[in-house]
Design goal:
Strand content: over 45%
Number of strands: 4
Strand order of the largest sheet: 1-4-3-2
Number of helices: 1
Largest sheet: 4 strands, antiparallel
Radius of gyration: 13 Å
CATH class: Alpha Beta
Shape: elongated
Helix content: 10-25%
């Protein structure tokens, strides 16, 4: 699949789950490690690795893993994490 389609799952995780609703990417830096093909089941995961104290900005480690355990995408992201009111 095209990389943008594969990384779209990360948008959903960040916007809806972690760090919280209303979060958006400020920067996304990823490497495509393995192909994702039609029919593959993928899982997006993020981990907060840093949080600024002066602004609602976090740094994340991001991964997209195929159902066979192979990491297809990995990298880092910087997010604005202020919840929507």
């Amino acid at each position: 699949m095209q990389g943008g389609v594969t990384t779209a799952i990360l948008n959903a995780v960040v916007a809806e789950e972690l760090p919280g609703p209303g979060s958006v990417f400020l920067q996304l830096d990823v490497a495509f490690k393995a192909p994702v093909r039609p029919g593959d089941v993928i899982t997006g995961s993020v981990e907060v690795t840093a949080a600024r104290e002066d602004k609602p900005i976090t740094t994340l480690a991001v991964h997209v893993t195929r159902d066979d355990g192979v990491v297809a995408v990995e990298g880092t992201a910087v997010c604005w994490t202020e919840p929507l009111s």
